[in-house]
Amino acid sequence: MMAEPWQALRLLLAILLTLMALTYQARKKTFLSVQEVTAIENYAKDSLQWITNQYNKESDDKYHFRIFRVLKVQKRQVNCFFSVFAIPWVEQYKILNKTCSSD
């Protein structure tokens, strides 16, 4: 009979901790904003084309992929640092290192 009050106390404590965690998460602010944009925007087309080209270059698949239909495009601003190996007179470029953060 003594186990029932302890179980009720544990349940009450679990509910209290859950509510505290949820209110803490609700108060956190984020400075990253993601916005939906139309796929007609120039930078969206160029970005999708570049991503497809990079994927096809790095893929071992014998078939090249292309984007057939775009369902949704979202825009997000991030800060990136790239280390690039370049031999411009032979048009050879290679990304050596990339570091991105969303601050």
TrEMBL record:
GO cellular-component term (any): sperm flagellum
Keywords from the named record: Signal
GO molecular function, one term: cysteine-type endopeptidase inhibitor activity
Biological processes annotated in GO: defense response to Gram-negative bacterium
The keyword Lyase is assigned to this record: no
Keyword Signal: yes
Signal peptide: 1-25
Protein name: Cystatin 11
Source lineage: Eukaryota, Metazoa, Chordata, Craniata, Vertebrata
Encoding gene per record: CST11
